UniProtKB/TrEMBL annotation:
Keywords for the protein's UniProt record, in alphabetical order: Transferase, Ubl conjugation pathway
UniProt keyword Transferase, yes or no: yes
EC number: 2.3.2.26
Molecular-function annotations in GO: ubiquitin protein ligase activity
PROSITE patterns assigned: HECT (PS50237)
GO BP terms, alphabetized: protein polyubiquitination
Record's catalysed reaction(s): S-ubiquitinyl-[E2 ubiquitin-conjugating enzyme]-L-cysteine + [acceptor protein]-L-lysine = [E2 ubiquitin-conjugating enzyme]-L-cysteine + N(6)-ubiquitinyl-[acceptor protein]-L-lysine
Originating organism: Seriola lalandi dorsalis
Name this protein carries in UniProt: HECT-type E3 ubiquitin transferase
UniProt cross-references to InterPro entries, sorted A to Z: E3A/B/C-like (IPR044611), HECT_dom (IPR000569), Hect_E3_ubiquitin_ligase (IPR035983)
Keyword Transferase: yes
Length: 440
């Protein structure tokens, strides 16, 4: 159908525009610019007329915001009057971009604060705003904050200044991330923080150190809960399929490692970083991944602070058993390849000790058979008939530990700390301490 003479021509689409431009370029190639022509066409910006000059891009000027913690009483007035317009406008504006976040929470809008000692953030005001956010009655206010965070993250994928880093520091404190409905946004925030440079991470660690112990613990617990829920969601359809968001857990764990780096002085005990949920995953598969691929593939073994004592003990025990089997197999293959008679004792670390000389005999045997230390232990007491099916090994350990700690010969019991420490008594054979290390 044709268009009338006076009808307006439709605006071409972007694809049509690019296609037309390519056809024109193919039909008429521009002549090459030689060095003389390039030299003649080189102009200085000073010779251009004022209307042609364009300003060079510079750091954005942060708008001034005058609201303070003391003045942040809009919430109380809104609850009493039922008028939430000012509160809605504040939250809608504040989180819409990194510039607005700095304008609201930075102590001095255009101050630099480029040091690890001072983030430049008004921490009291951040806490007041976030605490008030959870108590807002209209749900659209909380949704507008999340929408603003999405816009901010889409705009600022790669930070350029410390103001951008400061915005990440403020956003990660948002208490809304405790809800699984916000996990998609939380995951993208964690992904961007995990991808920051090592220098930026250094700043964040020092800024996190200055959070209150209660706020710090809340952030750590939120990250641990995020990892646990991603591993074992309460409802199958509650979160996206794990195959489509495999980067969630690595990003969260890397950010959690920043909190764990705050160690002088420690804000919370190291045991509070343990994630008990990891006791129910195939942690030996995690260990094998770490052994085979190192840090090229994510494994929880790259971040041992998150693994509980139960998991670490099980991994060490399983790895020790695997090494015992490997050592025994190598000894067996070596005998067979040389066509020698196979002795099943090759599969074990066999030691013979006298009860009267338990400590010295044990030291001599373990020193002489150091190459077999990774094999399964089998103990024989001299002059006593018996086959070690595990009972003699347990008895040997019990007697050895009793003799080591019985007197002040090697260790002294400290009543105040209820621990043993090296004895001040001069020891004749310091190699016995090596025995303690080998046995332990």
């Amino acid at each position: 159908q044709g268009l009338g003479r006076g009808a307006k021509q439709p605006f071409p689409s972007l694809g049509t525009f690019i296609s037309t431009l390519s056809q024109r370029r193919d039909a008429r190639e521009l002549p090459p610019i030689c060095s003389d022509v390039r030299q003649k066409q080189r102009l200085s910006i000073d010779t251009l007329p004022p209307e042609v000059k364009a300003p060079f891009p510079s750091d954005p000027i942060i708008p001034l915001r005058t609201k303070t913690t003391k003045e942040f009483e809009d919430m109380e007035r809104a609850v009493q009057s039922g008028d939430w317009r000012e509160v809605r406008e504040f939250y809608l504006t504040t989180f819409d971009s990194f510039i607005e976040i700095n304008a609201a929470f930075k102590r001095e809008a255009n101050g630099s604060f480029n040091t690890i000692d001072d983030s430049g953030v008004n921490a009291k005001f951040v806490n007041a705003v976030y605490d008030a956010l959870l108590s807002t009655q209209p749900q659209d206010i909380q949704k507008s904050v999340l929408k603003g965070i999405i816009n901010s993250l889409l705009r600022e994928w790669k930070p350029r200044t410390k103001d951008d880093l400061r915005a990440y520091f403020i956003l990660v404190q948002n208490p809304q991330y405790s809800s699984t409905s916000t996990y998609v946004i939380y995951a993208h925030l964690l992904r961007q923080i995990a991808a920051l440079s090592e220098a930026d991470h250094h700043f964040l660690v020092h800024w996190l150190k200055r959070l209150s112990a209660r706020r710090f613990r809340q952030l750590v617990e939120r990250l641990l809960q995020f990892i646990s829920t991603r591993l074992f969601p309460a409802e199958p359809d509650e979160l996206p399929p794990l195959a489509k968001c495999s980067w969630w857990i690595p990003s969260a764990t890397k950010v959690l490692s920043l909190f764990n780096s705050v160690s002088s002085p420690p804000i919370m005990p190291f045991t509070d970083f343990y994630n008990i949920t990891l006791e129910h995953i195939d942690f030996m598969e995690e260990y094998r991944t770490w052994q085979n691929y190192g840090n090229s593939n994510f494994s929880f073994c790259q971040f041992p602070f998150i693994l509980s004592t139960v998991v670490k003990k099980a991994i060490i025990q399983k790895d020790s058993e695997q090494q015992m089997i490997s050592q025994a197999r190598q000894s067996l293959v070596s005998k067979v390849s040389r066509r020698q008679r196979v002795d099943m004792n090759l599969l074990f670390l066999n030691i013979k000790v006298r009860r009267a000389q338990l400590l010295s005999d044990s030291l001599d045997e373990l020193t002489r058979k150091r190459c077999d230390l990774k094999k399964k232990l089998r103990v024989t007491f001299v002059g006593e008939a018996g086959l070690d099916m595990g009972g003699l090994t347990k008895e040997w350990f019990l007697l050895l530990v009793r003799q080591i700690f019985h007197t002040d010969y090697m260790f002294t019991y400290m009543k105040d700390s209820r621990c043993h420490w090296f004895s001040s008594w001069k020891c004749d054979n310091y190699s016995e301490f090596q025995l303690v290390g080998t046995v332990s």
